[in-house]
From TrEMBL:
This is ATP-binding cassette subfamily B protein. Pfam families: ABC_membrane (PF00664), ABC_tran (PF00005). GO terms for cellular component: plasma membrane. It comes from the Bacteria. Residues 48-334 form the ABC transmembrane type-1 domain. PANTHER family: ATP-BINDING CASSETTE SUB-FAMILY B MEMBER 10, MITOCHONDRIAL, ATP-DEPENDENT PERMEASE MDL1, MITOCHONDRIAL. Keywords: ATP-binding, Cell membrane, Membrane, Nucleotide-binding, Transmembrane, Transmembrane helix. The keyword Cell membrane applies. GO terms for biological process: oligopeptide export from mitochondrion. Its main location: membrane. It is a multi-pass membrane protein. GO terms for molecular function: ABC-type oligopeptide transporter activity; ATP binding; ATP hydrolysis activity. The chain crosses the membrane at residues 47-72, 92-112, 175-208, 274-292, 312-333. It comes from Rivibacter subsaxonicus.
Length: 631
């Protein structure tokens, strides 16, 4: 346990270190298991019951050899056959009673211990998952989601084995072993001293080898996590994989990772197997030695046959306890590796910190019908992984309530980064980001984000019904409100036409909807959320003109009465924007209306010519207007 402090101090406190913690283990003890204590603490009552039944079961086991001795020494001595029969029945009755007690106590112990294992694992899983969900995007840049999933399943399962079985096996065998030891010392000190000598020779190497098992355990869990990470990455990108006919390549990449996990697991198993062989043969040796000594003593008339029988059972109990304990030690070390890793995830601190004393945003009612104001003041920001390149380079922008501002610029200009700043996914290194005049760092994250509706470029559809999908941003909304939002987003028609209408299950990632339908569903979600600021990242993929019109109408509805920042890829959008901000390499190059920028901004002219003209879905009248303006 001495190393638990080491484990805590090495527990990763920043997100980057989580990803780097793939290396070998830092401490080689069961110390990290101490981190499970807070998870066990709420269930003190259950633990007490488990321990009670565990001790009772161990005592019943220890009572067995005593009853056996009584049977051999007393049950068989009566000379009268009738009396002997009666005595025998009594002794067998006593043995049976011990057996029944053992059965009942063991069942109760099993129930409580397994309950604890399941409970603690479920709590741990939920705690780690909930914690991971609070991490900023920086965490997910460095930690693969498949790896987190593997931690949540494979590592917690190891912990479950320990809490739900190994710990109780360990405790039971400790109690039984100590009991057998005490009884042996009490009844047969000479044999005892010898057995103990042999056992020491067994335990020491087992402990030493066990350390290596733990290192290998963590390594094999890590390799397993690698395989899971590959699978989860590929499974969500199946169309890309299949269109590149990369199935065989991806299958090989996974099987290579699985193979590495296998090799590491086998190395661990080899070490463990050698340990098992050693432990079993050595403890067997100890047992036989005890038996040999005892037989001699009986022959010399020093002890009774019953005494020998009792001694043998005690020695069996003692040696098997030691053997089990060595096994359990291996399990504990394995689980320590898994716990260490889970605790690293739990210790990861998001660099986007909640303010200690959050300031309230101005009441929402005041914004109703006009939207929020947002400001970026001299914002300098680089992504944590790219400290040399400023993604936003001294950007200042004031957006008034109700205004629609389009962001345009070449790829990598920093348009999405502006959104990330407003949502406070990252904090700027310099400058200020204000929402309704309040610096975003001083507002509770939940409050800030509740005021922002986001329609991302790739509409995310969850694997649930259409109704629940729209309700995602405001779970308490009534069905009627959902229908109204869907109508406003031009989604009501196609949703009602689905086999089960709004109750239709949309499949994983909405694969049953077309691109335009997915967008409208995402817009309905934003409309229902009814936030004063709308961040809209227009989809770049072209839609057919009918679908495009529907999406544009939906967007117009979503923008009504709100402040809107839109990353624009469509001509219709820039034409209708109040102002257009032209970004390049993290700087604002120019701000103006479409007509003004066409007049004076060379970059905008290039963008307009290349980007908007080629947008297939631009309605013909608008395209004509632009051509006229451009020419
Ligand atoms: N998570 C990230 N980590 C590191 N660098 C990033 C990250 N996201 C974006 N960048 C970099 O920051 C710069 C601005 O990116 P941003 O995504 O804001 O551009 P954009 O204008 O939205 O581009 P696009 O139109 O292609 O989406 C780019 O150089 C990009 O490579």
């Amino acid at each position: 346990m001495a190393s638990s402090s080491t484990a805590t101090s090495t527990a990763v406190t920043d997100v980057n270190a989580v990803a780097e913690a793939d290396g070998p283990t830092k401490s080689r003890s069961i110390g990290p298991l101490a981190a499970l204590l807070p998870f066990l603490r709420p269930y003190r009552g259950r633990i007490a019951l488990a321990v009670l039944f565990l001790v009772l079961a161990a005592l019943a086991t220890l009572a067995f050899p005593v009853a056996l001795k009584a049977l051999i020494d007393n049950g068989l001595v009566a000379t009268d056959p009738g009396e002997r029969m009666l005595a025998l029945r009594e002794h067998f009755g006593a043995l049976f009673a011990v057996g029944v007690a053992l059965g009942l106590f063991s069942a109760a112990r099993f129930y409580f211990v397994t309950w604890l294992g399941e409970r603690v694992t479920a709590d741990l899983r939920s705690a780690v998952y909930a914690h991971v969900l609070t991490q900023s995007p920086a965490f997910f840049e460095t930690t693969r989601s498949g790896e987190v999933l593997s931690r949540l399943t494979a590592d917690t399962t190891l912990v479950q084995t320990v809490v739900g079985s190994s710990l109780s096996m360990g405790l039971r065998n400790t109690v039984m072993g100590l009991g057998a030891l005490a009884m042996l010392i009490f009844t047969n000190p000479v044999v005892m001293a010898q057995v103990l000598g042999v056992l020491t020779l067994v335990v020491l190497p087992a402990l030493i080898v066990g350390r290596r098992v733990r290192g290998l355990s963590r390594a094999s869990q890590d390799r397993l996590a690698d395989a899971s990470a590959i699978a989860s990455e590929v499974l969500v990108a199946m169309p890309v994989v299949q269109s590149h006919t990369a199935e065989a390549r991806e299958a090989r990449r996974f099987s290579d990772a699985a193979e590495r996990a296998f090799t590491t697991a086998i190395r661990r198993t080899q070490v463990r197997s050698a340990l098992v062989a050693f432990i079993i043969s050595a403890t067997f040796g100890a047992l036989l030695w005890g038996l040999y000594q005892g037989t001699q003593a009986v022959m010399r008339g020093e002890i009774s046959a019953g005494h020998l029988g009792q001694t043998v059972v005690f020695v069996v109990l003692l040696t098997s306890s030691v053997a089990v304990l060595a096994e359990v030690w291996g399990d504990l070390l394995r689980a320590a590796g898994a716990t260490e890793r889970l605790m690293e995830l739990l210790a990861a601190r998001s660099p986007v910190a909640e303010p200690a004393q959050p300031r309230a945003l101005p009441p929402r009612a005041a914004d109703a019908g006009r939207g929020a104001s947002v400001s970026l003041r001299d914002v300098l920001f680089h992504y944590p992984s790219r400290p040399q390149t400023a993604a936003l380079d001294h950007v200042s922008l004031e957006v008034k309530p109700g205004e629609t501002v389009a962001l345009v610029g070449p790829s990598g200009a920093g348009k999405s980064t502006v959104f990330q700043m407003l949502l406070r996914f990252y904090d700027a290194q310099r400058g200020e980001v204000l929402f309704d005049g309040v610096p975003v760092q001083t507002v509770a994250l939940a409050e800030l984000r509740s005021r922002i509706g986001l329609v991302p470029q790739d509409s995310v559809i969850f694997s649930t019904s259409a109704l629940e999908n729209i309700r995602y941003g405001r779970p308490e909304a009534s069905d009627e409100e959902v229908f109204a939002a869907a109508r406003a987003a031009q989604a009501d028609g196609f949703l009602r036409a689905l086999p089960e209408g709004y109750a239709t299950y949309l499949g994983e990632r909405g694969v049953r909807l077309s691109g335009g339908q997915r967008q409208r569903l995402a817009i309905a979600r934003a409309i229902l959320k009814d936030a004063p600021l709308l961040l809209l990242d227009e989809a770049t993929s072209a839609l057919d003109s009918e679908s495009e019109r529907a999406v544009q109408a939906a967007l117009a509805e979503a923008m009504r009465g709100r402040t809107t920042l839109v990353i624009a890829h469509r001509l219709a959008t820039v034409i209708h924007a109040d102002r257009i901000v032209v970004l390049e390499a993290g700087r604002i190059v120019d701000i103006g209306s479409h007509a003004e920028l066409l007049q004076r901004c060379a970059l905008y002219q290039r963008l307009a010519a290349a980007q908007f003209d080629s947008a297939a879905a631009v309605s013909s009248s608008e395209a004509d207007a632009t051509s006229a303006e451009l020419s």
